Amino acid sequence: PAPASVLGSIEPAIYPMVYSRWGVDVLARSGVRAHYVPCGAPSDVFTPGSQAEARKKFSFADNDNPFIITMVSANKDHQDRKGFQEALVGFAKFAERHDDAILYLHTNLDGAIKLKAMIKQLDLVGKVFAPDQFNYNFGMITERYMVDLYRASDVLLNTAKSEGFGLPLVEAQM
Question: Is 143 helix (H, G, I), strand (E, B) or coil?
């Protein structure tokens, strides 16, 4: 069923919108008429391209041909819904066997989960990178940056325990 907090937050909405047909159905069972507006990424922007060219744009790729693991997840939930702990512990184990591996966390390192402390505790300083935190926190990261990030990466890591839509999965595949 739709959580009470969701129902309360959309109560004043004039035109409730959701990005999945499942969400429309869940809300309908609670008496809310919601409109389906599919979520997606622009296929003319998120396109394949040269990994080598994209890597030149990131200082973390100065290593000699690193294996780049990228996680794109908002750090705003104290319950660690995105699975940052699992991601970092798993990466630490992976990095023990693969010294060329780096993890790029596209998130707020000082958000609800204190990622800087976890990175230090797991001895991953210098192996984990993130965007400029000012630019990230003030919405100054461009689509072009994200396209280059996905192109530079070898794999997208998604340890989410629950997901609204999972837009990074779509963007990375494109």
Answer: helix
Beta-carbon contacts of 10 under 8 Å, excluding residues fewer than 6 positions away, are: 16, 27, 32, 34
| Cβ atoms within 10 Å, residue 172 | 20
Per-residue pLDDT reduced to its tens digit, 58-99: 887 666 789 999 999 999 999 999 999 999 999 999 999 999
Give the whole-angstrom CA distance, residue 122 versus residue 162: 25
- Give the neighbor-by-neighbor strand order of the sheet with 128-129: 128-129, 101-106, 67-72, 155-156
Please tell me the pTM assigned to this model: 0.84
Instruction: Summarize pLDDT for 91-123 with one digit per residue, the tens.
Output: 999 999 999 999 999 999 999 999 999 999 999
How far, in Å, CA of 30 to CA of 43, rounded?
35
Contact yes or no for 125/24 (Cβ under 8 A):
no
Torsion of CA 51, 44, 168, 19, to 10 degrees: -170
- For residue 36, which phi and psi values (nearest 5 degrees)? -85, 120
CA pair distance 94, 63, nearest whole angstrom: 17
